[in-house]
Amino acid sequence: MESRYDHKAVEGKIYEAWENSGYFNPDNLPGERPTPFTIIMPPPNANGSLHIGHALFVTLEDIMIRFKRMQGHRTLWLPGADHAGFETQVVFEKKLEKEGRNRFQIPREQLYEEMYAFTQESKATMYGQLKKLGASCDWSREKFTLDPDIVRKVQETFIKMYGEGFIYRGSRIINWCPKHQTTLSDLEVEYEERTDPLYYLNYGPFTIATARPETKFGDKYVVMHPDDERYKQYSDGEKIDLEWINGPITATVIKDSVIDMGFGTGVMTITPAHDTVDFDIAERHHLEKIPVIDKYDKLLPVAGEFAGLHITKARPLIVEKLKTKELLQKIDSEYKHNVAVCYKCRTLIEPLILPQWFVNMTEKPAGYSSSFRDLGIPPIKEGRVKFIPERFEDIYYQWMDNLRDWALSRQIVWGIRIPAWQCKGCDRWSVSIEKPAMCKECSGSDMEQDPDVLDTWFSSGQWPYLTLGFPDNPDFQTFYPTSVMETGWDILFKWVSRMIMFGMYRTNKIPFEYVYLHGLILDKDRQKMSKSKGNVIDPLGVSEIYGTDAVRMALIVGNAPGSNTAISEDKIRGYRNFATKIWNAARFVLSNHDEKFNEIKPEFTAEDQTILAELRSTHQKITDDLENFRFHHAAETAYHYFWHTFADKVIESSKPRFRSENIVDRATAFALNLEILTTSLKLLHPFMPFITEEIWQKMPLAKKELLMIQNWE
């Protein structure tokens, strides 16, 4: 063995040997392997390089696959990439901005082709990075969410759901990003605490408060709780004439128990076209919904003299007019509240009523015993899908209880086109993959496809069964349901819940048996990593310096499921030192090999037997931890055993025996150390695959295949 371990010289060579063996493909694995073990890789977005969070999921999933492969399972780890819809378009728009171009000025087909080329280049780079991290996945089965077969099956699901009443087109309130000019789902909206002025206004005999006076032109309803004694003289539906921003109006009293009597004055006006709660009140009471603001954050004609102004310019002018008309009581300049923002650009979300495609999440369509949401509950309650850690079950139920209809339409170019066609003659819609010859309603032939694309979570929510070729591919029959879905807890609702619902809807089976949820990677001070803070760790960069095995160990040790974990260059450097320890220990043991030992039966002492018993106990503990998803414990046990028991104690106590005049004693000492080294390489292989495979190839074993397919026992 070389005097030092050179990861730069080893890792590429070892990965090439693994790939060339064909053993990443379950069809090529040796021996009888009746039990499949399947992981579908959460597809990274094909719009950039991998970050430290990707390195974590790759490490965790590779640990599971390598462990199960060595246990004799028919292991499939299917890789892929996500076109990532809106997120990729945002990334590409930044690229266009640097080039002095604007996506709204580029023809649709040209923009799509440019973005496709961009994602293919990003995807190739990303796959190269996954390989550098040691990902032992089956590249022959790689999938992309815009592969033609995937696109067609996603559209078929849309058509099926529409035909059965789970999808509808309607005008409901949605989250609108004025910067990117697209709808966002509730899960793509984030909230920031901001300090804004709160304006107290005279609304006839009532006092109302608002942080958005520019929306008040549409306020013609005043709402109060039916049990509020302060307003018992007002009856539901009563009309009240009052002076408002642009002159006299007639307001209507609405009694609704959603009002919090203890908040403010207990009375409020509603703007149904620009607030979700207000919209729901208007729906319950069949009230008019007057739009005040357009898609560009400009005021509509209902605002009178302020029409056409951007809301930020109009607001101070409106406040001044309210003041002039003595409708402004006071201003609280330190009002702290949470505001909805776009999760990518942080622009304030404008709730708008727009015609969109929606998934009906909570109502049961005719002929169905459950809603789409309800499909995602029994698999968890019945224990068919288990969360690691278990505490996320309650969080999952809470979120499912508060679901709203899912807005599917995205007003962008990048993604899977909605398979819907509008007749220009009668404005009715037909749903089909191919363009209909004529409208079923009016027989018109002028049919135009909806320019919108589907929310990317609609396709990625179907990822487990689509990647396996549902319904006819033998892979689907063999590897579905999959074994484990490993992903970040932060997309439990965006993705995991939808995969469960879609899986039950399309296949009538769970998509996976376990959901392993990892946390965020924090810096050494337990701060979230961000480019602006300068605390981001590039996993490929530190792998180049310290070796991939060191990075993998640093990511796993101390990292409990569902919890955030800290990582630093010092921690990675420490596991580089561990790799050096492994190399030096193996080199010492193998340097004491003598061909004559092959003819000598070792005579283990009582102390040797105790050492071997501890080895067996350690093996069992690590196996139990791996079986029960305690990867952090398993890695730490393997680390401590090798360093503090094997290297510090066994090897040190063996040194006098290796110098013994008695060849049987030397042979026995070597057999003892070789047994521990052999077992330790197996135990460490899932965590540190490169160095363990390299040492394995130097072992004096009679039958020496790749370590990656050795029997775990």
Structural class: alpha/beta
Order of strands across the widest beta sheet? 6-5-14-16
Tell me the span between the first and last alpha carbons.
26 Å
Strand count, sense and barrel status of the largest sheet are:
4 strands, antiparallel
Shape: elongated
**Residues in β-strands, percent:** 15-25%
Please tell me about this protein's structure.
The chain has 713 residues and is α/β, with parallel strands linked by helices. It has three domains: 31-166 and 360-417 and 452-518, 3-Layer(aba) Sandwich (Rossmann fold); 186-351, Isoleucyl-tRNA Synthetase, domain 2; 547-709, Isoleucyl-tRNA Synthetase, Domain 1 (Orthogonal Bundle). Helices cover 39% and strands 19% of the residues. It has 20 helices and 25 strands. Strands 6-5-14-16 form a four-stranded antiparallel β-sheet. Strands 10-11-9-12 form a four-stranded mixed β-sheet, with no helix packed on it. The chain has a three-stranded antiparallel β-sheet with strand order 8-7-13, with helices on one face. Strand 5 and strand 6 form a beta hairpin. Helix 1 (7-21) crosses helix 20. The radius of gyration is 32 Å and the shape is elongated. 42% of the residues are buried. The mean pLDDT is 95.
